[in-house]
């Protein structure tokens, strides 16, 4: 098994602008596989022996009651739990066939390959352009025209370009909440990730903003592997190919969304989706 490394496309990704048309070279989407993955915060167990395979170029929704471990799963895939006091884990998480917890893995490189967007949009207090340019500038040392092209490419992929192309120098915090959330997605996409983790990305948005995010997830699934944590069961049913239910850190059921929401195999799933608990 090889150590995680920047993919070849990460070094050249971004648009070629020959002829003035964008022809992006996206990274190859990767599957994500958790095997007997457990996590603890101090003595408190948060995840128990999770077995979960997310096929490449698909959307997996993770649902479950509050405190069931949904965010912990996402953060484990990005190694964002590393460094929290008392945290430890057992088992493995593979990105494609690469163990993300191998000692050779650089977590910063991992986080370029596995982008994450949080519930509350968190743009830097800088311009729209600078928010998106930050990653490729730092990680790929892009400058000038090449950098501008990557910014445009990422904003187009995030379905935001048309709304901000004349406001690139404006403070990102002047955008609407929904636009800020898509800006955060563009910021992750600028690193040309193979996997995108979305932690309740539309819970702070109005119905229109929510719909834009869902359309975006639907479109991005062709190029990326996406895991989305959501409290909105209709959203999971709409956007996710498969859905996983976590209860008390245990994976209760994982199935195609069309089946899980209509013919759940486990009585706890039925109780959860019919609102009898959680
Ligand atoms: N940094 C931390 N330190 C200690 N315990 C934590 C920490 N983060 C999470 N936990 C605990 O781990 C468990 C799972 O939390 P997690 O945030 O993953 O749940 P969740 O399903 O995402 O919840 P919610 O839907 O409310 O966001 C909870 O019991 C929580 O209190």
UniProtKB/TrEMBL annotation:
Record's GO cellular component terms: membrane
SMART domains: AAA (SM00382)
Keyword Hydrolase: yes
This protein's record includes keyword Mitochondrion: no
UniProt entry keywords in alphabetical sequence: ATP-binding, Hydrolase, Nucleotide-binding, Phosphate transport, Transport
GO annotation, biological process: phosphate ion transmembrane transport
Name recorded for this polypeptide: Phosphate ABC transporter ATP-binding protein
E.C. number: 3.6.3.27
InterPro entries for this protein: AAA+_ATPase, ABC_transporter-like_ATP-bd, ABC_transporter-like_CS, P-loop_NTPase, PstB-like
Pfam families hit by this protein: ABC_tran (PF00005)
Domain (ABC transporter) ranges: 29-273
């Amino acid at each position: 098994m090889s150590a995680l490394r920047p993919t070849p496309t990460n070094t050249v990704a971004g648009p070629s602008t020959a002829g003035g048309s964008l022809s992006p070279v996206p990274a190859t989407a990767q599957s994500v596989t958790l095997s007997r993955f457990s996590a603890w915060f101090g003595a408190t167990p948060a995840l128990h022996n999770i077995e979960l395979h997310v096929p490449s170029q698909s959307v997996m929704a993770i649902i479950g009651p509050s405190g069931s471990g949904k965010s912990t799963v996402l953060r484990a895939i990005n190694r964002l739990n590393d460094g929290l006091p008392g945290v430890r884990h057992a088992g493995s998480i593979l990105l494609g066939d690469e163990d993300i917890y191998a000692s050779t893995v650089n977590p910063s490189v991992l986080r370029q390959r596995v982008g994450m967007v949080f519930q509350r949009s968190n743009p830097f207090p800088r311009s729209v352009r600078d928010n998106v340019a930050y990653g490729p500038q730092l990680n790929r040392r892009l400058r000038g025209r090449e950098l501008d092209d990557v910014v445009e490419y990422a904003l187009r992929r995030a379905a935001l370009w048309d709304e901000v192309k004349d406001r690139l120098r404006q403070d990102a915090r002047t955008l609407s909440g929904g636009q800020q959330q898509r800006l955060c997605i563009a910021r992750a996409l600028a690193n040309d990730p193979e996997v995108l983790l979305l932690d309740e990305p539309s819970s702070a948005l109005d119905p229109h903003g929510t719909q834009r995010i869902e359309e975006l997830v639907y479109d991005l699934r062709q190029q990326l592997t996406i895991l989305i944590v959501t409290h909105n069961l209709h959203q999971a049913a709409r956007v996710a190919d498969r859905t996983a239910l976590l209860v008390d850190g245990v994976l209760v059921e994982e199935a195609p969304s069309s089946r899980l929401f209509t013919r759940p195999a486990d009585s706890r799933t039925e109780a959860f989706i019919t609102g009898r608990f959680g």
